[in-house]
Design a protein that fits this description.
mainly alpha; two-stranded antiparallel sheet; two-stranded antiparallel ribbon
């Protein structure tokens, strides 16, 4: 016997795929993601025109590319959201394997584009950042390992997931990409906690992370420079943080007006890492608050739906994906207002960048697949299945 945990419409295996998908998908969150994409195009129109002019390109060159990659991202998101849980696990595992190999080959084949960190593959017409695609695959694989540890006679999945997390974090730190390393470690920590890890062990792991941060500060000039800049009482107005801070202050509640902002002419990464500064200056706190609310609603709504999920893998993977999505947005905006050290992290669906936008589509698509309404096995059925 099975029972429905939420949703009243019975599902039939013979239903057409698209109508069944539309009935079971979280349509509210799907609409919010489309809204984020619209925000990205709006801010792209404001932020990328100066860059196109500087590079002798058509005025809306970057906006057109953002629209193309955004449309591709939405298509990928919808396709991923149609997957059943078993396919999510398989596709996530394959995707992680490919991204992991690409990450290993970065020192030999990658480029830094003059930014001091080898994070990208240059394909001529587009660049690819493997760490963006690694995140969703890593979350899926570690969730599967943790879920398998809950089966009677199952493997030591929690230990395997910890070993994998250490390897991935070290590879990211060596680029160096401490922002992505922290995000991956955060997602793993949340899943480990949800999976039943004792508090004492989490405290020990937290202590190790702090120790690793201190070691990185003393051994990496790149890391130390960013921490020193963050802790400094004075902000150099000629730095990106200085420009962004001033723009946010100038914007006030309603902004200086569409097209009237100046930070986009002086800030090198106005269309990517610091696009929220453009939003704050031209549209004010009103739009920034709406963007914050949109990210928060997607994250919290997904977590609430996952609370009713009885499949351990779906619950763990969905939680990791939702928290990674929300935390990435928080880190990006926290850097812009100087609540966090500079990390070079994009704002999902809003910042310009092919890798970032498409990887965000994959991540949210997998999250939507795991939060779809579907019949849940009864508690007695699950216990019986684990005992076999």
């Amino acid at each position: 016997m099975t029972e429905m945990v939420f949703g009243t419409a019975p599902l039939s295996a013979g239903d057409p795929v698209i109508p069944r998908w539309w009935r079971t998908i979280d349509r509210f969150s799907l609409g919010l993601v489309v809204l984020l994409f619209c925000f990205g195009l709006l801010l792209g129109l404001a932020a990328s025109v100066p860059l196109a002019e500087k590079n002798n390109l058509p005025p809306y060159y970057y906006v057109t590319r953002q629209a193309f990659f955004g449309g591709l991202s939405l298509l990928v998101m919808v396709l991923c959201s149609m997957m059943p849980v078993a396919m999510v696990r398989r596709v996530g595992t394959i995707g992680f394997g490919l991204a992991f190999v690409a990450l290993l080959l970065l020192p030999a084949l990658g480029t830094d584009f003059g930014k001091g960190a080898v994070r990208w593959y240059s394909l001529g017409f587009v660049s690819v950042q493997p760490s963006e695609f690694l995140k969703p695959g890593f979350i899926i694989v570690t969730a599967f390992l943790m879920a398998s540890a809950q089966d009677l006679g199952g493997p030591p999945g929690r230990f395997y997931s910890f070993a994998l997390a250490v390897i991935v974090v070290l590879l990211l730190a060596l680029q160096p990409d401490f922002g992505q390393a922290c995000l991956v470690l955060f997602a793993w920590g949340v899943m480990y906690f949800i999976g039943g890890a004792p508090i004492a062990l989490l405290v020990v792991l937290g202590t190790l992370v702090i120790g690793g941060g201190i070691g990185a500060y003393h051994s990496s000039e790149h890391f130390a420079r960013r921490i020193d800049g963050y802790l400094s009482a004075d902000v150099d107005p000629r730095t990106q943080i200085g420009y962004a801070t001033n723009a946010i202050q100038e914007g006030g509640f309603f902004g200086v007006g569409v097209g009237q902002g100046t930070v986009k002419w002086t800030l090198p990464d106005a269309h990517t890492d610091f696009i929220i500064a453009v939003a704050a200056e031209e549209f004010g706190l009103l739009l920034v608050g709406l963007i914050l609310l949109t990210y928060g609603l997607i994250t919290v709504r997904s977590l609430m739906r996952l609370m009713k999920e009885r499949d351990p893998f779906a619950r763990l993977a969905g939680t990791g994906l939702a928290c990674a999505f929300g935390m990435q947005a928080m880190i990006n905006m926290g850097v812009a207002v100087r609540l966090l050290p500079a990390k070079g992290m994009t704002l999902p669906f809003i910042s310009y960048g092919g890798s970032s936008v498409i990887a965000s589509g994959i991540l949210v698509g997998l999250l939507l697949a795991l939060t779809r309404r579907r019949p849940q096995g009864g508690i007695g059925d699950i216990i019986g299945r684990r005992g076999r």
